[in-house]
Amino acid sequence: MSDTSLITHLRHIDVTMPSFAEQRQFYTELWGLTETAGDTGVSFLAAEGSPEQYVVRLREDQQKRTDLIAFGAAHPADVDALAAQLIAQGVKLVREPQMLDTPGGGYAVRFFDNEGRVVEVSADVTPRRHRTIEARESIPVRLSHVLMNSPTPEATVAWYIKHLGFRLSDTLCIGSRGEMMWFLRCNTYHHSFGIVRGPHAAFHHASFEMRGVDEFLRGTGRMQRLGIERLWGPGRHRAGDNSFSYYLDRAGNTVEYTTELEVVDEDTWHPHLFDLTDPANADQWGTANEMNEYIAAKSHNDVDPGLFVAPPI
């Protein structure tokens, strides 16, 4: 386990799809994000309670893919130090550290992970003027975490621990079928990133933190009244102790409303192994519909055609 991570937090997830107009409408009018910048076929979406310039970037393309996952660093010198470490370790850079021309600017390095996803780490991004989310306001406060499917999850988890200094918080298994989900942290939140065993490399889900349980349930109810199919939930996970309601966006990506994600004590935390054959480990409340193969298959998502391909922006 590394204690020298130069990564401070999760910034944003950038995705592409043919159904751009429908996606933009879903995330702004239904999900509760705010468009802060954009151009033809590109939209930058912020969470009202977050200082990040944007937490989701949508881009129109003929193919559905994940453009990149972005994390923060404290200083430009940390970006340079990380880039030097990655080069020394044989990691392939997408581009060397340089200034960003996206909202808020900043200084960033981009590189491929072991399976070809593009990762960006940036510093000196100008904080966005944000606000306190009020009681009963059922819109996201921030981007909580992102999980990715992997056909080689043990190797991918090891890659993020070795090269980026992530720490393992907890692991899920399914009885004798073995381990299937790993939760990784880069700060004291239980997880900002995670890896799920799947048939191919692809986006698994992105989770958005709500103000509290009341706002989480109000958001869940709003989506139900709007006729948006709920995949799974509402319930409360054991690992991370967070609530969950999962949906599909207009491109078939899984998105989650959550709240009260656990904050860990770095000095005393020891990873747990939770067995999902005990239903309380999946849902402590017992209120969610039963997890099944249909739900799992939807979150396995489509094969990502963008592996080892740098996004155009």
Query: Using only CA atoms, what is the Rg?
Result: 18 Å
> What form results from the Cα inertia axes?
globular
Structure summary, number of beta strands: 17
Instruction: Provide mean pLDDT, rounded.
Output: 97
Q: CATH H level of the largest domain: which superfamily?
A: 2,3-Dihydroxybiphenyl 1,2-Dioxygenase, domain 1
Helix content: 10-25%
Please state roughly what percent of the residues sit in beta strands, choosing from under 5%, 5-15%, 15-25%, 25-35%, 35-45% or over 45%: 35-45%
- Structural class category: alpha/beta
CATH architectural category of the largest domain: Roll
Question: Regarding CATH, which class of the largest domain?
Answer: Alpha Beta
The third-level CATH topology of the largest domain is 2,3-Dihydroxybiphenyl 1,2-Dioxygenase, domain 1
Domain module tally: 2
Profile the largest sheet.
9 strands, mixed
N-to-C series of helices and strands = EHEEEEHEEEEHEEEEHEEEEHH
Low-confidence stretches: none
Spatial gap, N to C terminus? 33 Å
Number of helices, counting only DSSP H or I runs of 4 residues or more? 6
**Major sheet strand order:** 14-15-16-13-9-12-11-10-17
